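Researcher: Next sequence.
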Amino acid sequence: MTQLPPASPALASDDATRDADPGDLILPAERILDIPALRTSLFEAASEATNEGGVRAAAVRLIGAAQAEARERIAAAIAERPREAFAATRSYAWVTDVVVRLVHELATRRLHPLPNPTTSERLTVMAVGGYGRGEMAPFSDVDLLFLTPYKITPWAESTIESMLYIFWDLKLKVGHASRTVKDCLRLGAQDFTIRTAMLENRYITGDRALGTNLDRRLWSDLFKGTERAFVAAKLDERGARHRKQGLRYVVEPNVKEGKGGLRDLQSLYWITKYIYHTDDAEDLVKLGVFRAEEYRTFEKAENYLWAVRCHLHLAAGRAVEQLTFDMQVEVADRMGYADKGGRRAVEWFMQDYFRHATAVGDLTRIFLTSLEAEQQKDAPLLMRMFKRGPQVKGGYEIVHNRLAIEDDKAFLSDKMNLLRIFEEALRTGLLIHPDAMRLVKANLSLIDDDMRNEKEARRIFLDLLLKHGNPERALRRMNELGMLAAFIPEFEPIVAMMQFNMYHHYTVDEHTIQCIKHLSEIEHGNLIEELPVASTILKEGVNRKVLYVALLLHDIGKGREEDHAALGARMARKIAPRLGLTKAESATVEWLVRYHLVMSDMAQKRDIADPRTVRDFAKAVQTRERLDLLTVLTVCDIRGVGPGTWNNWKATLLRALYRQTRRALEGGMEALNRENRGAEAKKALREALSDWETKDLRIETGRHYDPYWQGMHVTAHKVFAELLRGIKADEIKLDIHPDDDRDATRVCFALDDHPGIFSRLAGALALVGANVVDARTFTSKDGYATAAFWIQDADGSPYEDVRIPRLREMIRKTLMGEVKPREMIRTRDKLKKRERAFNVPTSITFDNEGSEIYTIIEVDTRDRPGLLYDLTRTLSESNVYIASAVIATYGEQVVDTFYVKDMFGLKFFTPSKQRTLERRLRDAIAAGKERADG
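Model: Next structure:
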C-alpha cells in the first residue's frame, strides 16, 4: 500500500478550526465532521487511483458524502434550535473551509506535487465576500480568490483547474478569481464591488505569507485615504438596491437584498471595517457610533434574519432569497411559530420579520447618514452666506441640511418636544437629523397619558395630519421611530402586521399611511381626472379632521379574533376624543370605522342596478355628510391596498353607487322605483335609436321584462337591440367590445333561451382564461336570452383587439357543442405553487331581503381557474335560474354573488332547499380545489 503523505499544515488540528472556534459552532466540530478519518480515507483512495480522473472521482465520492452528512447534522441541530443562527452560519462556513483545504491538499500533494517550488510557484486560497466573513447559509456561494505572487504559472493554473473541477462536481456554486497582489490592487481601485469583496478576505490555505502581504498592501495602498469615496459608493449602491426592491413592507420581501435585509447589515460591516479597521461591530459602541441598546437591537435583528435565510434555503433545497407566500408558511413552521389569537402562525412570523427589518433599516440609516455627514466637508463660508436655508425655531439648528437639536438636555426637559420636532420638520421641509431621531427613539418612555391628553399634544398631532400638506412623511417617520405607537398605544399591535393574503401589498401600518397619502393627494387636486367624485366632495368641503382620523383608525382593530371593523369602532370611540375631536365628530369617526367596508362591499358584491341595493345602502348611510365621508374613505382604502388594486371597474361601480344614493337621499327613495327607471331607460334607448322605424322601436321596447331595463346602461341596450333585430331561430349573435370606462371587455350574447345558458357561457370564457367580473342574463318575452359578461385577462386588463377573434371562436365552439368546457377545464385549473399556501374557508349565504324578486346567493371562497363555471354549472344542474352574477376578487379570495330564482320563478325560502344547494356548491368547490392543488 502506498505510504500516505505527511499531514498538511493547513489541516493540522489547530488550523482546521482557526476561523471558527469549535465552541462557536452549532455542534462540537468532531460531531459535525471527522477530519482525520475523512483525510485518511481520501488519500487512501487517491493513492489507489491510476489517473487524475480517478482521484477526482474518489474525492467527489468521499468528500461529497462527508459534506452531505455534515450538512444534515447542522440542519438537524438548526431544527432543534431554530432561532440561533450565528452558530449555524459559522458551522456551514467551517465545513466549507475543511472541504477547500482538503481539495487543495489533494491537488498540491497528489495531483500536482511540486517537490522544489520556486518563489513564483506559490499559491494561496483565500475566502472573500460573504464566505470571507465566515458566514454562510446552507446554499451560499463559495467566493474564492486564488492568489499568486506573480503571473500565474502552469503549475498554479493546473492546480486551480483541478480544484475547480472537484468543487463543481461537488455541486458547489463557486465564484472565483485568479490574481496577483498587483492585480488585486489595480482592479480594486477600478471597481468598488471587487474592493468590497477583498475587504473581507480571509486566509484558508496555501502560502500564508502571500495572504498576509495582500491584506497589508490593501490597507496601505488601496483603502487608506479613500474612506469618503467608499462610503459614497456604498450609499449609492444601497439606494439603487432599495429602489429596485421597493418598500420595506412589501409582503414577499427579499431577505438578502430587500430594505432592512442582510445586505443592509453587511453594508454597515463593510463601512465599519473600512473606516474603523475592525471586524467587530460591537466596537461601534466603544467608538460612540451606537448606543449599547441600539447594538443589542441590531444583533438580535442580524441573528433573526440569518435564521430566516437558513430556514429558507433548507426549505427550498437551494439558494432562495425571496420569502414567497409558500415559503413563508414553511419557514414559520420551521421556526416554531403557532396559530394564536385569531391569527395564523405565518402572520406572527412575518410581523416579527418586518419589525426586525425595520430595526435594521432604522439603525443602518442612522449609521450611514451619520457617516455621510462626517465625510462631507462644510461648504465654504461665502457660499453658506448666500445660500440661506429655512429658518428654524429656537432649540433647533440645521446640520448638513438636516433638522438637528441644539441641546439634548433642554429638548428633553419638555416632553412635548418629542412631537414638536415632527411639526418643525414638516414646516421647514427639512429631514430630521439621525442624532435627533435617535434621541426621540431612546426617550419614547417619556410619552405618558398626561402628555397624550394635553391640549397642545392634540393640536400638534392634528396639525401634522391637517395643516402642513404632507402627513404621509410625518406619519411614516413617526411610525418607524415608534413614536406613532407611543402616542396612540392602540396602534402598536398593527405595526409591521402582515395580512397573509395576495390582496394586500403592504403591512397594516404601511397600508394606513398609504391611505393617508392618497387622501392628501386628492385634497391637493392631483387626481381630479382620475377621481372626479372624491375630488369634488373634498372641494365642496367635508370635516377634514373626521376624515383623516377615521382613515388613520380604520384598520386599528385588525389581528384579533373579533371582526376588526366592530372592534376598531369601539377603539375609535376612546381614541377620537383623546385626539381632541368633539362628541359629534367622535361619533362620526366611530361610525366610519365600523362601516368602512360597507360601500366597497355594496359596490363590488351586489348588483347596484337593483333598486333594493341602493335603497338598503341609503338607509344605512342616512345622511349626505356620511355618504361623502364614506365615499372618500372607501376610495383611499382601496387605493392604499397596493399598486393596480384601483381600476376603472371599481371606480365606475363606486361612482354609480354614490350618485344613485345621493339622488335617493336628496330626492327621496321613490326616485329608485323600477317604473321610473324603466321609463327613463326606454326613453334613452329611443333617443339612441332615433333612426329606427317606430314599429321596430315598439317591438324592442316591448319585448323585455322590467329587470332588463334597470340592469344595464343604454349603451348595452342599444347593442342588444341591434343583435335581436331580425334574429332567427337557433342563431347565435355576439358583440365583443372593450368597455374602457370599466377597464373590461364587454361580451354581449343574443340567442335562443335554454336551461344552463349562463353556465355554458361562463365555461367558454374560462377556456380562454378570461376572468368574469360582472355578468347578467335576461330572458325576453319572445324567448330569447340576452346576456352581458364583463371580462378581464389574467392581468386585470381588457382584452386587446388581436385576442378577440380567438375569444369569439372559443365561445362559438362551446355554444355549438364542439367543445366541452367541463372536460377541458379539468386539465387547466392548476394553481401556482406560491398560491397554494393560502387557505380560504368557504362561506355560503342566502339572502332573500337584498332583492325584491331574487334570492341572493353569496359564495365566499378560494379563487381558482374554472370556479365560476363549476358554480354556475352546479346551479344550472339544480334547476336554478341565474339572472346575474357579480364577482369581487380580493387576491386569492373571491366572492361570487348570484341573483337567482327557482324553476317556477320564486325565491328560495325553504331551508331544506337552501341546505341542498349549499351542499352541492360545497361539493363542487371541494372537487375543484382538489384538481387545482394537483
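Model: The domain at 396-487 is CATH 1.10.110.30 (Hydrophobic Seed Protein). The first strand starts at residue 124 and ends at 127.
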